[in-house]
Automatic annotation (TrEMBL):
This is Sporulation histidine kinase inhibitor Sda. One of its GO terms (molecular function) is protein kinase inhibitor activity. Pfam families: Sda. It comes from the Bacteria. Keywords: Protein kinase inhibitor. InterPro entries: Sda, Sda_sf.
Length: 46
């Protein structure tokens, strides 16, 4: 995931949510989002 741009990371995260993918898989995105200090860009409704 390190090669993804911040924008693509967030888009992929939202797509994974919309596809109702595994919580374990979503947590990988969330960890990377937090690591990059992008947590403030995650919508509150998620």
């Amino acid at each position: 995931m390190e090669t993804l741009s911040d924008e693509l990371l967030l888009e992929s995260y939202y797509k994974a949510i919309s596809l109702n993918l595994s919580p374990d898989f979503l947590s990988l995105f969330e960890e990377e989002i937090h690591k990059r200090s992008l947590s403030h860009k995650i919508k509150e409704s998620v």
